[in-house]
Amino acid sequence: MTAHTPPTPPFRDPQLPFAKRIDDLLSRLTPEEKVSFLHQFAPAVERLGIAAFRTGQEALHGVAWMGPATVFPQAVGLGATWNTDLVRRIGEAVSKEVRAMRARDERVGLNVWSPTVNLLRHPLWGRNEEGYSEDPRLTSAIATAYTHGLRGDHPTYWRTAPVLKHWLAHNNETGRDVTSSSVRPRVLHEYDLRAFRATVEAGAVAGVMPAYNLVNGRPNHVSPYLREQLRAWTDEELLVCSDAGAPSNLVDSEHYFDTHEEATAAALVAGVDSFTDHGTDGSKIVARVEGALEQGLLTPADVDAAVRRQLSVRFRLGEFDPHYDPYAGTGEFDSPAHRTLAGEAAEQAIVLLRNDGVLPLAADTRIAVVGLLADECKLDWYSGTLLHRSTPLEGLYERFGAERVEFAEGVDRVLLKTSAGTFLKVPTAPEATDEVRGAEGALDPALLAGRTDLPPLTTDATGTELALVDWGEGVLTLRAPDGRYLSVAEDGYLRASADQPGGWVVQETFRLVPRADADGNTSGNTQGNGHLLLHLGTGRHVRVAADGVRVAGPDEENPEVVEVIVVESGEDAVTRVTAGADVVVVVAGNDPHINGRETEDRTTLRLPAHQERLLAAARAANARTVLALVSAYPYAVEPGPLSAVLWTAHGGQAAGTALARVLAGDVSPAGRLPQTWYAADADLPDLLDYDVIGARQTYLYFEGTPLFPFGHGLSYASFSYADLAVRVEEGTAHVSCTVTNTGELTADEVAQLYTRAVDPSVTRPRRELLDHRRVTLAPGASAELSFDVPLSAFAFWDVAQGRWRLESGPYDLLVGASSTDVRLRTTVTLEGEPSAPRPVRLRGLEAADFDEQSGVEIVDRTKVSGDAVTPVAGGTGELVYRACDFGTGTGTTGVTVTAAGSGTVELSLDGGPVLATLTVAAPTPGPYDYLTVDAALTAGGVHDLRLGLRGPLRLAHVGFSG
Prior knowledge:
Layout: H1 18-28, H2 31-36, E1 41-42, E2 53-54, E3 57-58, E4 68-69, H3 75-81, H4 84-104, E5 111-116, H5 136-151, E6 161-167, E7 180-181, H6 185-201, E8 207-210, E9 214-215, E10 218-219, H7 225-228, E11 239-240, H8 246-252, H9 260-270, H10 283-294, H11 300-316, H12 336-348, E12 351-355, E13 367-370, E14 385-386, H13 392-400, E15 405-408, E16 412-417, E17 423-425, E18 458-460, E19 466-470, E20 476-479, E21 485-488, E22 494-498, E23 510-514, E24 531-535, E25 540-545, E26 548-551, E27 561-568, H14 570-578, E28 583-589, H15 609-621, E29 625-630, E30 644-648, H16 655-664, H17 698-701, E31 719-729, E32 732-741, E33 747-757, E34 768-777, E35 782-790, E36 796-798, E37 803-805, E38 809-816, E39 822-830, H18 840-843, E40 845-846, E41 852-854, E42 856-860, E43 867-871, E44 876-885, E45 892-901, E46 903-909, E47 914-920, E48 931-939, E49 942-950, E50 953-961
Parallel strand pairs: 3-5, 4-14, 5-6, 6-8, 7-9, 8-11, 13-15, 13-28, 28-29, 29-30
Antiparallel strand pairs: 1-2, 9-10, 12-30, 16-19, 16-27, 17-18, 19-20, 21-22, 23-24, 24-25, 24-27, 25-26, 31-32, 32-35, 33-34, 33-38, 36-37, 38-39, 40-50, 41-44, 42-43, 44-49, 45-48, 45-50, 46-47, 46-49
Helix pairs in contact: 1-11, 4-5, 4-12, 5-6, 8-9, 9-10, 12-16, 13-16, 14-15
């Protein structure tokens, strides 16, 4: 007899559409197998030949967490390039490295969690480094370019499947899993949703990841916007992956649901498809889903919908068609092209903020390079491990010659003297291996352990000279002469063992705590006598034990009292090398793992005091001082006394070479600021105030004078703008102009097109970016630039009508080199819809659709959907609704409010006396138990309506009758 080959199941047939293949595969999976797919680590189904699959591979600016890879500049640095073509090529390179790394390590996933499209609304946000810009259009342009590179250009199969982070309105680390972002409808649509929408509509996005926070009182993981907005923007199936641990937060920290079964069911119904929780252990999520099914909180159709979306991504990645997948077995890793691209990106990300003519430096310049970041190539939490490394010092040595470059790091070199008169000693460890944290790769680098193979610190009569750096707010690092940082491993001992500060909980930071004297007095000077050394990672003081130096146990007392003996101050070291130089380059900035990172917001825009002292010492010793800021976020510095100021984000593996080439004039700088640099902390709103309109945030609404404006960046060349022309036809404004390089160097210019509504009926941006173009021009060369702007780009979200509206009237069109450096302008009159009063007699008012507010926040009307408003902390607040039409004559005779809680609503017109007071006297049973209260009101015509809210009342709706 002849054995018959079993027929190929439809889900394996590449000639069938994906949808039919997914239908077939779903029909073959058991209910238990489907539920198991809902966890991040979906198990294999061997009977069907289906491999295991995991969502999530970090790839923000290179492949992260999986060992060595090409490291490109931080995302905010990519935003500073304003170059979509460059960013697309970077995305392509990253996706090729993902494929190449997966070919040798199956732990590397093809579902990449990148890019981050959260807007850089507030510069103190700890994760500022992860976003592209404060502007939604620039953010979406850069994100779209990166996702297209990650996706690849095949019409059917994707090289990688990008997931956008973090949905939605997420700009604070402080209490990030319990705080709610109050986002009014105009801010929601015109600002926070806009960056996501444009990127999704561009067609290279596989899904999104909800953020930890709540929006308008409701956790993002049960957000109705996933269905109402996100999935309405595209016909593609979008995979929604939860953030790590967020499903459990719905119960454990947010207390939004009573049980995990309720929470998991609500998230799944809202649109979450893959649950990232409990590491690689899917059993708890499986149990919660099964419990929700048993309780009737979920249906099998709910599970099928989520599994379908995951399978859609897997089919697009070619998992079921290895012979047809054009990317199978392909890849490119650490190639010469990728190294060149990393250098190009690092160069294009550099922004020249100020220059009195000192730059570019002549080839024979004698340079003193100083500063805590002068010989560093820092990585952040989402970096890969460096294959190549270039620091500013190394770049300057290479470009100008070591004989012309002097160096002083500017650390304070200290000895730590114990109460016994001995000094802390780093013992020699000749057998120690040169390990780099993370080099082996880890699915979760938070689990990487500290080293215990090195001997702990001891004490002796001479001690070891340590390099002390104060990174701000008294947070210190201590480094041994061999370059290793003092760190604490799981056994509690202090060792010189870390190549850099890092880890989810940084174990390399300390604080010197002044010891109180007998009268309780302390000295705030960290270099005075009598301090306790507090290890910040464990929260415990350091003590000297017989077997070595370690942190005190939970029940141990008598921490060591140390005296800081300064052998050489950083200022003295700087002064020593700067006086004889032609130019001093001070390299300052941040360590991405300290004082501003995921889980930790910054508290100030100021440069840390240690670095301010170094900068002052350099400037006092040499008037020709250049400040190069290498940082993940803006600083407030005083540029006046400085000859030049540059900024770059941490620029990856080629950062130092790039900076040296720009300083030397081999490359003219053309980076532009992707966010406003404010002059002082006083210019900033509260970190948790998400109302960019009301709080006048970002360049769109800020009314003060910034230190450096959005879009700012200087060049070694000069450019002229001419021939502005505008033509409006068929729903598009066609704008063109000519840019000419009038300088003597080939250089890039970034031409920026802005608009401003001249006579708006509501508060509109002071100016708003419509488009931009980065062009390279030789001396004397010109380029005609064209921008095709859909008229919808001039619209705003009309809360009176609950939709976008293009308002008729004049609009300024501004073209120039930054948001304030305008070279050309004209005004065009657009035909749209005229303003109309709110028909409150017909529809009433949704409480959240206000025009202005004070003392009010938006909260969830129900756990499923809808908004209400409430006074902050149950106090008092005011809402203003402009141009409300109450009908002719005395057309309105009554008012009704729908509210929960308890309190009063006072109604007045045009700032006049209170006309009606509506009171919810007894508290309703719960925050979602609404009742209606009526009152008489006589009104007619069009008026501004003001509502005063008093007490812990949740107002959902106001209706009018007559």
